[in-house]
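Weekly structure sync, notes
Attendees: PL (lead), two postdocs, one rotation student
Agenda item 3: pending single-chain targets
PL asked that the sequence for the first pending target be pasted directly into the notes so everyone works from the same version. It is reproduced below exactly as submitted, 267 residues in total.
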Amino acid sequence: MTNPKLLAIGMAICLLVSCSEQENVAPEKEAISPESIAKLNALGFKTDNAFKYNGSLVVEGDIVLNEADLNHMKPSNIVAIEEQYHTDNLVSSLPRTIDVYVSTSFSSKYFTAVDAAITRYNSENLNLTFQRVTSSSGADIAINPSPWWYYWFGILGSAGFPTAGGDPHNEILLTTQYYDGVSDIGALTTTIAHEMGHCIGFRHTDYMDRSYSCGGSADDEGDGGVGANHIPGTPTNPDAASWMLACSDGSDRPFNTNDKTALDYLY
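Predicted structure, written out during the meeting:
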């Protein structure tokens, strides 16, 4: 999830990091090939400020993609509007329990927020049940602190999408330099639930026009793709309260009626 105020700070963030972090050298953002940019655009991903690092693509502020996976996502003629969307790959072998591990390097409030996010999902009586486990061995999703340079680039957290084999994305990264200063457990819960949403296949509700939640100029990307499938029953108008908006305003956003419809439809 992205915070527009943080993004606006840009490289001035370096003034806020600790002395030890200032001693590090920010990694170079690798350019994404024109071919991959074209594939991302055709699939409905916003590519402004997207970059490649250590073999992975970071797009839309908090989504991590394997470049090789783009070859399995073929564009279609879906016209994107403000509705709920999901990826082509979803979690399979339902009903299923998803084990979530939280790094012990986090403070207690992160554990509280993860438990609250799990409760939000489990209260919907889905065919997915989440449970927190105390060992990373065999966990389906591990929640870890992000690399220090995430904060440098204005990334507050990241996650990916389910695998072609039907497993959830296996890692969520949270930027402690930012979230350690967040006292609202509800807001942190929403962020974690948002990244969990990506792990089980949810796209940003406003991925086609991030100006809706992020501000700035509107994008006119229209074509979605196999990776952006409309969820029937969700509205055709903007949904300001959705937990899957691209940018956070720092508020607590439990699942609203449209979110629940989307969750129930998929799982």
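Discussion points:
- Residues 5-22, 76-83, 217-227 have pLDDT under 50 and may be disordered.
- The radius of gyration is 17 Å.
Action: rotation student to compare against the earlier draft before next sync.
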